[in-house]
Amino acid sequence: MHRYRRYGFQVRRGLTVNENSPPLNVLFLCTHNSARSILAEALLNHMGRGRFKAYSAGSSPRDDQAPNPLALQALANAGINTNGLVSKSWEVFGKPDAPRMDLVITVCDNAAGEACPIWPGQPATAHWGYADPSAISGSDAQKSEAFTQTMHLIRKRLEILVSLPPESLTRLRIQTTVRDLAKS
Question: Is the Cβ–Cβ distance between 70 and 134 less than 8 Å?
Answer without folding.
Answer: yes
